[in-house]
Amino acid sequence: MIKYHSLAIVVSAVLLASTFAHAQPAEDAVPLSVYVSRVKNAEKPGGIFLMKMDPNTGALTKPEQVSDAVHPNFLAIHPNKQFLYSTNQITGPDDKQIGGVSAFAIDDATGKLTHLNDQPSGGMGACFVGVDHSGKDLLIANYASGDIACAPIDSDGKLSPCSQVIHLEGKGPNEKRQDHAHSHSFWLSPDNRFALAVDLGIDKVLVYKFDADNGKLTPNDPPFAAIAPGAGPRHLAWHPNGKWLYVITELSNTVILFEWNAQKGELHEVQTVPTLPPDFHGTSYCAEVLVHPSGKFLYGTNRGHNSLAAFAIDPKSGALTSLGTTSCEGDFPRNMRMDPAGKFLLVSNERSGNLVVFKIDPQTAALTKLSDTQFGGTLANIKILQK
């Protein structure tokens, strides 16, 4: 049983039964589109699902499948809100299945998806996609092969073949998980001048100068920030002020604060804090990290401990102070997303196949469970679109 700390969870059976379970959005609220991806496994096929969310109450409609993508590990929405991109598994030469990325058009009225095209991802095991702020390029991370890539986006939303693929080299001290490079995510700096590749296998955040017009990546000087050996960095989150960056580590279960030099593209490590309570001695792996839109709080997911860790952010230094953990109400919390206003936190539990909505206390960061939607299978990513 999970031991709760200072961040207590509040559950109301009445609200679960009547108010938040697949409710219809309020008439006076413009609903948000919530996209949820499920990866194919032995029990359930892959796909992308759409729900509508009431921005005032957090109520969700019943999921509707809008794509039969096989391996949509990660999703990204174009800045113009007209297109959605996904990792996938596609058919390559000789009818072999290879790593791929897929483009979809978003119906402006309904939020439903229309498949546009597919392209090879530039490696094996595509696990992450992100659109640059200008909307010209898709950045791709391939976990299995350790390759990062850039694919130009056409004016109609379709993807062109990769303009550049970079194969990363190296390994870490964990022989089972760090036998070679394992690129896990690929992010843009707030000003779109740099791209940061987070690699679990070689314990580095690599920094590249980014040319959006030509889809080109050039190693920065310095070319990377080293992470503690064996930590296994996975994802990152920017603070709204653009000066602080937080990296979550999958293998050592920590969050690392970096100061960001926007002119030089340089990272300076400031602080490392654990995401797990000191009395937990089991196996757990961090996955996702988010900063609240207010800049006051940070959340991280613990897969194994099956909890959501919360931290207060010092407004002067960016330093983190633990606020404890809350049960994720499922098994293996892989991804989470907040609505644009920061009222609600949505969590996808990979192994239990359920999506949980929590209400966020804007003063304390405390989470109150509102609803639980059962998908089954292997849940992966969440993206929220506000039209």
Mean pLDDT across every amino acid position = 93
Overall geometry comes to globular
Q: Write the H/E string, N to C.
A: EHEEEEEEEEEEEEEEEEEEEEEEEEEEEE
What are the low-pLDDT stretches, counting only 5+ consecutive residues below 50? Answer: 1-21
Report Rg. Answer: 20 Å
Question: How do the helices and strands line up, and which of them pair or pack?
Answer:
Layout: E1 10-11, H1 13-19, E2 32-39, E3 47-53, E4 64-67, E5 75-77, E6 83-91, E7 97-106, E8 113-120, E9 126-131, E10 137-142, E11 147-152, E12 164-167, E13 183-188, E14 194-199, E15 204-211, E16 216-226, E17 233-238, E18 244-249, E19 254-261, E20 266-274, E21 285-291, E22 297-303, E23 307-313, E24 320-327, E25 333-338, E26 344-349, E27 354-360, E28 367-374, E29 378-385
Parallel strand pairs: 1-28
Antiparallel strand pairs: 2-3, 2-29, 3-4, 5-6, 6-7, 7-8, 9-10, 10-11, 11-12, 13-14, 14-15, 15-16, 17-18, 18-19, 19-20, 21-22, 22-23, 23-24, 25-26, 26-27, 27-28
